[in-house]
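Consider the following input, taken from an annotated entry for Alpha/beta hydrolase (Nocardia panacis).
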Amino acid sequence: MFAIPSTLPDTPGRAQAIVALPGTGSDADFARRAFEPACTARGFELIAVRPDPRGVVAGYRAALDAAAASGPILVTGISLGAAVAVEWAAEHPRAAIGVVAALPAWTGPDTAQCPAALSAAYTARQLRERGLEEVVTQLRSSSPPWLARALTQSWRAQWPDLPDALEEAADYKWPGVELLGSVRVPVAVVGAVDDPVHPISIAEQWAALLPHSALHRITLDELGADPGVIGRLGLESFHESR
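Applying the prediction step yields:
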């Protein structure tokens, strides 16, 4: 945990809102469950962004621009959402109070060995070849129940454009060393120690590269039992020092 002088006070005076960006294939409901309990406890409004599968990253950026039009915001994101949050904050240091970046998947534009990119591309191919329901059935048999439930809901909501969204994620160029080093706002990084798709080594690397950072570690069992653990740990990093 680290203290940020006058960055995120206990009452909602400086930040107009906290904006949450979902991960690849996920939805606003999971982002809300991850961040809303902690936001509510602090009296902040949460804007959980609904991904547009026809243009996920562009939609996220537009939502951040719109939210920041009323004043500074704290940006939160999971996986792909974390990357967009960090990039936007680097570009808008006066509009972003800080970032909570959960489950970062990669560093840099070369994603040939990125597990998340490979998974997104494979799933997109399977969806195009076999259809949604057959792939959902396989998902339920091979994934933890909490993850299968969450993705079944979000995948059905984004169908039939879901393969496009996954291919966009597979082609996405993740923030590199230079960009991460340029972020001037504080960033709380949350990584899962047992997540093969979002390796903890990447979360550790981000925390080392970001100039003002704190790293929190969780397990997938903790995340499945209570997605709010992400928001709780992330926002704990933003206590106002007095």
